[in-house]
Amino acid sequence: MPVTVRPYDLPDAALFGGTGDGMMVWQPAETVIVLGQSNTPERSLILENVLSDGIPVTKRPTGGEAVILTPQMAVITVAREFPGIARSKDFFMEVNGMILYLLSDLGVRNYGTRGISDITIGDKKILGSSMHRRENRLVYHGVLNIAGDPSIFERYLRHPSREPDYRQHRPHSDFVTSLKKEGYGINYHDIAASLSHSSVTAPSL
């Protein structure tokens, strides 16, 4: 029985197809697998586990590898329209800089950036992100793991075909961490409240 991939219908879907600037910070209501634009269920997922557990699968319009969203995570989606062609790398740095400032303000230490756009604590990934481009409009899509158990990635996701150098072929459970696992009592409402006051929502972006 094949896995059904539904159209991208998560809360931030309108930001990908809309116009102008916008930002949404949201908490998934259920566990859902989100494929990257170039992923297929056969190459990216452990199909028997996805089917037996009834995990829904959708595909976002951004690149990157498949991710799992759970209610223990925060999704940060930021859209910006530029007057001219902008570099994805610069926008990654801008939004990640906002998130790093937030983590510092909440007391997180030993954080940094690795790979193209990952945010890490030590040598483990705490946030992954991807980018969607449509002419002069960029949409950043990031997932911050607040308290999700990294072992869930190994149950449903195959080892990706591409990985950042710092991963060094580590399995999901040894590569991904969470704020909770690192000893921080930060919840979704802390994240959402802090980001709601961020300058990233200003029209100047």
Characterise this structure.
The structure is a single chain. The protein is of the alpha+beta class and 205 residues long. It has a single domain (5-195), classed as 2-Layer Sandwich (BirA Bifunctional Protein, domain 2). It contains seven helices and ten strands. It has helices at 13-17, 41-44, 47-53, 88-105, 151-156, 172-175, 188-196; strands at 5-6, 22-26, 32-35, 57-59, 67-69, 73-81, 111-114, 118-121, 124-134, 137-145. The strands form two sheets. It has a six-stranded antiparallel β-sheet with strand order 2-6-10-9-8-7, with helices on one face. Strands 1-4-3-5 form a four-stranded mixed β-sheet. A hairpin with a 2-residue loop joins strand 9 and strand 10. The longest helix is centred in the middle third of the chain and has 18 residues, at 88-105. It is globular.
| Largest sheet, strands/sense/barrel | 6 strands, antiparallel
Mean pLDDT over all positions: 92
Percent range of helical residues: 25-40%
Per CATH, what is the topology?
BirA Bifunctional Protein, domain 2
What do we call the CATH homologous superfamily? Bira Bifunctional Protein, Domain 2
What sequence of helices (H) and strands (E) makes up the elements? EHEEHHEEEHEEEEHHH
**Number of structural domains:** 1
The poorly predicted ranges are 200-205
Count of helix runs: 7
Number of strands: 10
Radius of gyration: 16 Å
Label the overall shape: globular
Which architecture name does CATH use?
2-Layer Sandwich
- Termini separation comes to 46 Å
Instruction: Report the CATH C-level class.
Output: Alpha Beta
Hey, roughly how much beta strand do the residues contain? 25-35%
Structural class: alpha+beta
